[in-house]
Write a structure and sequence with these properties.
Layout: E1 22-29, E2 35-42, H1 43-52, E3 56-59, E4 64-67, E5 76-83, E6 90-96, H2 131-144, H3 151-180, H4 183-203, H5 208-219
Length: 225
């Protein structure tokens, strides 16, 4: 886990807490933007979060400060913090230890979409995320549960030879689109490369999240000559 993000503690003074001295806080994953949970903070919880880099909330049911993950080990390291235009809602970007934010054992508290609530748990549906993460889920789904006539499955069945050939072809077409300066074509070919790249990742069992983690590490790395 990398060093936590820290914000100037004076920002607390500009926030609008409700009549009970609380402010809602939405926690989202630092890599794919998925919403993990919603809880409440009071001034002390927020100040402790900013001071320690680990997220603290206020439990309305227990009427006490709550260090997220102190018991379960599923702590949240603060990566960024924003507040909305009315300064009465917080958005926390967090690195979730163990990839479990919900008390049921699910990755996110937002796993239900049907008419009746379910029990959640480790097998609960994942929360909506960015489009590349969602695409990878579809590709991995095809890999694990093949569908007749699926182009993705045809690629996977062909293995590296078929997939890598397509990556080479799409890369060449991307280069030509860039040479021609055609914005729509450039975007389309870039999308084709990403799709076939993700198929190759799925074939080799490398998750998209692992790629995101590498990119995140490189973002703050020293510049290369």
């Amino acid at each position: 886990m990398q060093a936590p993000f820290q914000r100037d503690p004076r920002l607390v003074d500009g926030l609008r807490f409700n009549a009970d001295g609380l402010i809602p806080a939405v926690a989202q994953d630092w890599l794919d933007g998925a919403v993990l949970m919603v809880a409440w903070m009071n001034r002390e919880a927020l100040e402790r979060t900013l001071a320690s880099g680990e997220v603290h909330y206020w439990s309305r049911s227990r009427q006490e400060l709550w260090h997220k993950g102190a018991t379960s080990g599923h702590t949240q390291s603060l990566r960024d913090l924003r507040y909305d235009c009315d300064a009465d809602v917080l958005l926390l970007t967090v690195e979730q230890t163990g990839d479990v934010a919900c008390h049921t054992g699910a990755r996110s508290c937002f796993f239900d979409a049907g008419p009746s609530p379910s029990g959640g748990g480790p097998d609960a549906a994942p929360p909506p995320a960015d489009v590349c993460t969602e695409l990878m889920r579809v590709i991995e789904g095809r890999r694990d549960h093949p569908e007749p006539g699926s182009y993705t499955n045809k690629l996977l069945e062909g293995g590296d030879n078929r997939i890598l050939k397509k990556i080479g072809e799409e890369s060449a077409e991307f280069v030509m689109a860039c040479k021609d300066g055609e914005a729509d074509a450039i975007a389309g070919e870039a999308a084709d490369i990403l799709f076939h790249l993700q198929v190759a990742l799925a074939l080799h069992g490398v998750s998209w999240r692992r790629v995101q983690e590498v990119l995140a590490r490189r973002r703050g790395a020293p510049r290369r000559d």
